[in-house]
Amino acid sequence: MKTEIISVGTELLMGYVVDTNAGKIAQELLTIGLGTYYQQTVGDNPERLREAIKLASERSDIIILTGGLGPTQDDITKQVAAEFLDDELVLDNGQLDIIKAVFKKRGTEPDENVYREALTFKHGQTLFNDVGLACGSAFKRETKAETNQHIILLPGVPYEMTYMLKHKVKPYLKEIIQKKGVIESLFMNFNGIGESRVAMLLNDKIQNQTNPTIAMYAKPRHITIRITASAKDAKTAAQMNQKTADEIQEILSENFIGYGEDQTIETYVVDLLKKKKLTLSIVEGFTSGLVMSSLTSIAGVSSIFAGGLVSLNTETSEKQFGLTDLKSKTPEDTAKILVEECAETFQTDIGLSVTAETILNTSGQLLSGTGYIAVFIKDEPVKVKPFPLPEKPQPVLRELLKNEALAFLKDAVE
To answer: pTM value?
Structure first.
């Protein structure tokens, strides 16, 4: 079945808002075996939106629109879609109850425009929004083709869209596509290994894949492998996926950090420290708090993370830790001193320091140099790792060094 995504919003066309929704939808659809064939972006204009829906209806089986479901006059997606489908919009009492409950909790009364967010197709299916006000809708349209066409409307607010995509849309679509069997995906995550290396090690499996299929997605120092099986039932598909996963893990066991779409090196490190009942403190220079920020985004991190310091110069580090003459030390010695002082100051079992020495290239746009990662573990010698930083923009190098620091911390603790 061909899927098409239409992102609605003039702010997307003008560049004020980056469209992350289309990418997220396409990724999630792949987990149930649906490929996205086309993507469109259209502004809040009835005529152009109508043209976009018409074009999609001529070439796609599943059409997902995101955005334009709000309470203002330029939120026109439901109205235009209903007109195109020759259906009408009605208020859904279930979504109205959600809206009223939200405003009651706020201690205010909603104005009439807010109720527009509870509109849905009269002859469609309401997709309730449990994390926002605007409900989504799904409509099954009969066509001359062998399969019916499905038009799905989702909010444009990214966290609302993501929640509804996972909890409302995917179950809805699974019922449609799994009548003749099921499609299930399993995600594996690997850290500290490059894409080319993984591709080489898994070359035979990738070249000879049939069912399950193997797909690979790369981020800096992180690889996600998606295994997708088609079978008569969910249990059989899961068994097929796990068999392939076990074979892959035998090859890449040293870098494996867990299953799941959302598994990252951050979640792995937090879970590892929780399991070992160890506390952590961090001092950062070049990464400017990126390591701490990534860890503190994990729920429950406060049980293992005591605090840290962002210091971009020697003077600040000396002042905060009561040190002198750091400038005379080598970068490795500085990393050792800082991590020991950090663990002492915050009274933690483990300390992590992340610093770097960099230079600008002649264009003034790219940096290169060496990162220095140090890990202190109580009653053990401090471990220090120099990490070469290739010539890249500063944000890229920070992300690389952040991931390398977490991987080095993981290996040291394990």
So the answer is: 0.74
